[in-house]
Amino acid sequence: MKYFSLNHNAPEVSFKEAVIKGLAPDRGLYFPKEIKALPDTFFQTIENLDNITIAYEAIKQFVGDEIPKANLKAILTDVLSFDFPIVTVEENIAALELYHGPTMAFKDVGARFMARCLGYFNKDKTDQDVTVLVATSGDTGGAVANGFLGVDGVDVTILYPSGKVSDIQEKQLTTLGQNITALEVDGTFDDCQTMVKEAFLDEDYHGKRQLTSANSINIARWLPQMFYFFFAYKALKSSNKKLVFSVPSGNYGNICAGMMAQKLGLPVHHFVTGTNANNIIPEYLNTGLYSTKPSVQTISNAMDVGAPSNFIRIQELHNNDIETLRLNLSGYSYTDTETTNAVESLFANNDYIADPHGAIGYLALKAYLKKENQIQGVFLETAHPIKFLPVMPKHIAKKIEIPVQIEQVLDKQKESIKISNYKQLKSYLLA
After folding, report:
1. In-domain check, residue 273
2. Does residue 98 form part of some domain?
3. Per the count of CB atoms within 10 A, which of 59, 255, 321, 370 is most buried?
4. What is the residue-averaged pLDDT of the chain?
5. Over the stretch 217-241, which tens digit does the pLDDT of each residue have?
6. Which of the following is catalytic: 21, 107, 171, 234?
7. Does the structure show a pLDDT above 90 at 280?
8. How far apart, in whole angstroms, are the C-alpha atoms of residue 16 and residue 24?
9. Confidence (pLDDT) at 202
10. 343 within a domain of the structure (yes/no)
11. CATH of the domain at 334
């Protein structure tokens, strides 16, 4: 499998090169040169397949022969070592809970897959050590830190916006030590992401640091997120209803992975994106005008993104045609008040505790379902509600038990290095 840059001004690369480079030299995101749909028989018999087999069939063409079948299956067995339950919330609406992994966020799968791919590529230690550089608006940092912890030949540097992640999220990315370093940035997530992208294109690191990204711009972080959608289809196939996924979205990697699954033949009727005040994509779908803007801080902090990196991949999957995209994607945005009210309503009426991101996914799904009948709707619960206690209604927060994954980090000491600009990041990386 070869990958090309979506800026179309860089050489094609292999899977290994795309994973290690992260971003193409022309600042473009890598995209597979060819996408082959899976055979109809795969979907006809998917209920008879285990999750490892499903994941292997979905990902194998993108990895090619660069990781042998036995090794790739071993990686997937390690990565997919927890459950992805679907919980019925109300008639024709279910929550796909993606927070049962080690850091209780959907990003555990992508982070663990990428870490193990890099570990495989570095097993003979013939290549230069790799520095994974990642920006986080919340859960990415913890998932990457946990996924890469102790991986030989890989150092991880995480940039996060000071005061704009929850206390638990901060603990998860600042307390592990070993090969993990947290840089606390005086700014927004967009500032963190801009610094990361600038570092990739800075030639001063050549021969000194091999940088790669563990954000969803990296294909090894982005593509494994397809698996959730396959698993959900397997579980809901017997309903014989059209399947609609509502994905709370910030950088748009997760929903883009779902669209890649659809490209492989997964029977998805429609996608819905729900977001907060950072409503770049819903506005684009409404007006046809794409305009990034400085991010706004909200209670659904993982979606506080003003320049969604993965949207260019979504456009590529839809032939860069907005009318084609509109047929497959609807977008809605919600205020913090509307989000809190949805959390309250889900608890009061359905006895279900959703985090702010999942609540937005639920609202967006409800809005879309007003248009169509005979739909099985699924909204993605992307992180455990425990991570957002300060912004959850107090009477609901009291009902949330502390999972063991979270309890393990609560008493640990935070360690971070404060920076405010790219010059300081560069000084740290070259030190």
Report:
1. yes
2. yes
3. 255
4. 92
5. 899 999 999 999 999 999 999 999 9
6. 107
7. yes
8. 13
9. 86
10. yes
11. 3.40.50.1100
Compute the distance between CA of residue 236 and CA of residue 222 in angstroms, rounded to an integer: 24
- In single-letter form, the type of residue at position 61 comes to Q
Asked if 276 and 363 touch (Cβ cutoff 8 Å), the reply is no
pTM over 0.70: yes
Amino acid identity, position 62: F
d(CA 314, CA 365): 19
Total domains in the fold of the chain: 1
Q: Is 370 in the active site? A: no
In whole angstroms, what is the distance from residue 154 CA to residue 129 CA?
6
Residue 354 falls within a domain, yes or no?
Answer: yes
Q: What residue has token string 């990296």?
A: 218
Range of the domain at 390: 83-105+222-400
